[in-house]
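Hey, does this match?
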Amino acid sequence: MGAIRGIWRWRGNPLRRTTDLVEAWAALVALLLMVFGAPLAGLLAGSVAHDTLTRTAGRQHAARHRVTATVLDTSTVVVPVSADAGTATERDGRRRVFAAWTAPDGTQRRAHTWTNLRNPEPGRRFTVWTDTRGRPVARPLDAGEIALQAGLAGIGAALLTTAIAESARRVTLRQLTLRRYERLDRAWERAGPDWGRAGTGS
């Protein structure tokens, strides 16, 4: 709205100052950046993020393997050192268990890992992601996560572009206002000595 009001300075007026035209141009540039620049920046950022995340997901899928693990014991649960980690674990419903699985290279592995099983009793099976050596790793990014993160990147870029455009307009307006006040002060100083004298200007 501020940018739109600034363009109003272009209206024909015999009292229009040079600073009014500068303010109008600044408002127009800011408005164009908001209307066209912000969506374009968002689209480009989202596209770049999507391509980058897609390549990352491809590398993850090539290096990570989904295997079936078997719960061996739930009594030797390792309590997270960080309270925040424990809170996050309780919130997403995962539990830490001692399990066994076969690594992609055929070796048998036993270690503590996380499971989404509600009742992780011994003998229960669940899926775990591992690297090529059979060590537990996070699951690869999926299409939904890629789209979400790319969308957030695009929205963030669009909002940032809008904020920069509006901030630049406000800084320009502030500088113009200060310049107007300085000119007014100089004009007042010139008129000051004769102010109130009878016959001044006659």
